[in-house]
Structures are given as C-alpha cells and as structure tokens.
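[Automated response] Your request has been received and processed.

Submitted sequence:
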Amino acid sequence: MASVKKDYTTEEYEAQYNHIHALYDLAEELLYTVESKFVSDPEAQLAIIEPLINEIGDATDVLTQEFILIAESKKNKGSNKASKLQVETSLRKIFAAINDYHDRVRNISKKAHGALMNIADPIVQKILKQIELVVIIFFEFMHISLQSIMNKAELESLKLRDARVALMMHQYALSQQQT
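Generated structure:
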C-alpha cells in the first residue's frame, strides 16, 4: 500500500533517488579510512569495515532498483511493482551491519583495555543518518514495517528526530482501523 498523497515531479523523484544512491559514496568514504595516515594496521581496519561496506553496496543495489520501479509506476500511474519485502530486507541488513560494526569496534576496544574509537565512526554516523533518510523515503512511497527494519530504540530515536515518521505511522494506524 503506497502512502503517497501528492504527485511528485521528475526532479523530486531524482532527488529522492540521489539520497538513496548517496549510500554508495558513504561506503566508498568508509573504504578510504583504510588508507588514512591515522590507521596503523590497514588490514585490521579493512576487516572492521569491509562487512559493512559489502552490505551497504548490496542493499543499495536493491534499494535503487526498487525505487526506480516505484518512480516509474507512479509516473505512469500504474500499480507499484516494487517489492516491499526486498526493501525491508535490504534496509534491515544495513541496520544489522551497522550494529555488527559497532560490536567489532567494541570487541577490539575490550582487547585494547580502553575506550577506543575507530576512525570510521563519524562516517558510520553519517551512514546511519542517510539510511534513516532512505527509510523515510520508502515509508512515504510504500508502507514498510519500520518495526521489522530497526530495533525499538532506533525507531523511537527516528520518530523523535523526524516528526513526519511519527505522523505517518499514526495516519497508517488510523487508516487500518477504518478498514
């Protein structure tokens, strides 16, 4: 079920697509941390970030293709051929990969007996903000299950940062009660 109420222009679809596509750039930015002069062991750094880079790349491939299907179906006033399951799965994989990244950094920090930060942490924060934006984009176009994509704390945090999410969830719940 799509929750889009307005007709988007081609430029607006392109802007939304570019927000999704930006995940590729952020994954590449993560990769550059391996070459940083602040990294003493590039192989260890790669081991920390590579799983996240791979998940972002794979998920972004799916998300960009699914968004193209959404945009084409809306432009042609056809039925939405995008797969809700594929979108939810891809988004969930990125959130899980971010959590796994944090676990890897925490484990290394424990071994080092200190509160160690990884050089990639600020980039991972940018990825998290970008993936939240992508979640909102897909939530506007199809009713994806936010509870199956992110954990409760992540969802509550997103609702606090972006009132549109709370409003859209409320509107959807109301529409379900009326049917």
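Summary generated for your ticket: Residues 10-145 form one domain. The chain has one domain: 10-145.
If you did not submit this request, please reply to this message.
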